[in-house]
């Protein structure tokens, strides 16, 4: 269950890659497969060509479960926080009380206790993204895809959300692939950072982030963090 961030110049195909992985776009060429890790029951993604077939399956032929969070929270304005989170389970036909109980667990996980009946219009940007993360996690996905989930937030809220997302990831231990334009964000969150080249995008650098977890905010001011940031900046160009 690895946390991987993808960096690269604009137009290198970062968001396109995630949309193909999620099955929202069809690839023009190439193949993709989900491989069961020997030491885990979850799946990891591998691709030699940086594209994925929307119909990809894992061993046994079943479809992998994928959760996705976009730059905008995309909450249903006519549904409360709890109702937005339960939506994926409702679409799967899960019993209402069971769906609400699972949603309540995620409300607690993302720190929104007391806001279950709140409407999206009354949420801050950071709170709305927490709801979106909870909604993406409710069906226990094998892979969580994050497409610049904090890109629309102000700088202070964004940095607070790094800590929150890191805490949530450590609690749930999902395989995560996250697109970002922020070097600091990538280093604070990821186990590995992939840097893509200009179009046509290919992997230019695969950097292991050897920073201890959990990561306090102060780690961003250490010499080693700065050295890793320098390597990423040089690779991006």
Low-confidence stretches: 38-55
Assign the CATH architecture: 3-Layer(aba) Sandwich
Q: Would you count the extended β strands for me?
A: 8
Radius of gyration: 18 Å
The total number of structural domains is 1
Widest beta sheet: strand line-up? 4-5-6-1-7-8
Reported by name, the CATH topology is: Rossmann fold
First CA to last CA: what distance? 30 Å
CATH class reads Alpha Beta
The residue-averaged pLDDT reads 86
For the largest beta-sheet, the strand count, sense and barrel status come to: 6 strands, mixed
Q: Count every helix, treating DSSP H or I runs of 4 or more residues as helices.
A: 7
* Series of H and E elements: EHEEEHHHEHEHEEH
Structural class: alpha/beta
Which homologous superfamily in CATH is the superfamily? P-loop containing nucleotide triphosphate hydrolases
Shape: globular
- The fraction of residues in strands falls at 15-25%
Describe this structure in words.
There is one protein chain. The chain has 237 residues and is of the alpha/beta class. It has one domain (3-236): Rossmann fold. It has seven helices and eight strands; from the N terminus they run E-H-E-E-E-H-H-H-E-H-E-H-E-E-H. It has helices at 14-21, 81-91, 96-109, 125-137, 155-172, 183-189, 223-236; strands at residues 3-7, 33-36, 43-46, 66-69, 143-147, 175-179, 192-196, 203-208. A six-stranded mixed β-sheet has the order 4-5-6-1-7-8, sandwiched between helices. Helix 5 links the parallel strand 5 (143-147) and strand 6. Helix 2 (81-91) crosses helix 3 and helix 3 (96-109) crosses helix 4 (125-137). The longest helix is centred in the last third of the chain and has 18 residues, at 155-172. The protein is globular. 32% of the residues are buried.
């Amino acid at each position: 269950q690895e946390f991987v961030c993808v960096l690269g110049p604009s137009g290198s195909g970062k968001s396109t890659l995630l949309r193909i992985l999620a099955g929202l776009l069809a690839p023009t060429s190439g193949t993709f497969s989900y491989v069961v890790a020997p030491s885990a029951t979850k799946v990891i993604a591998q691709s030699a060509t940086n594209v994925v077939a929307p119909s990809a399956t894992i061993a046994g032929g079943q479809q992998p479960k994928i959760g996705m969070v976009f730059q905008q929270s995309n909450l249903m304005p006519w549904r409360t926080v709890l109702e937005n989170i339960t939506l994926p389970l409702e679409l799967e036909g899960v019993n209402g009380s069971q769906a609400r109980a699972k949603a309540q667990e995620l409300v607690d996980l993302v720190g929104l206790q007391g806001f279950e009946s709140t409407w999206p219009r009354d949420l801050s940007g950071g709170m709305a993204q927490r709801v979106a993360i909870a909604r993406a996690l409710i069906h226990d996905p094998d892979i969580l895809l994050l497409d610049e989930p904090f890109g629309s937030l102000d700088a202070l809220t964004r940095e607070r959300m790094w800590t929150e997302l890191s805490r949530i990831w450590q609690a749930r231990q999902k395989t995560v692939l996250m697109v970002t334009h922020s070097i600091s964000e990538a280093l604070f969150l990821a186990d590995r950072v992939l840097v893509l080249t200009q179009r046509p995008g290919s992997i230019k650098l695969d950097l292991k982030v050897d920073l201890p977890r959990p990561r306090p905010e102060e780690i961003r001011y250490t010499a080693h963090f700065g050295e890793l940031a320098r390597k990423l900046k040089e690779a991006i160009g």
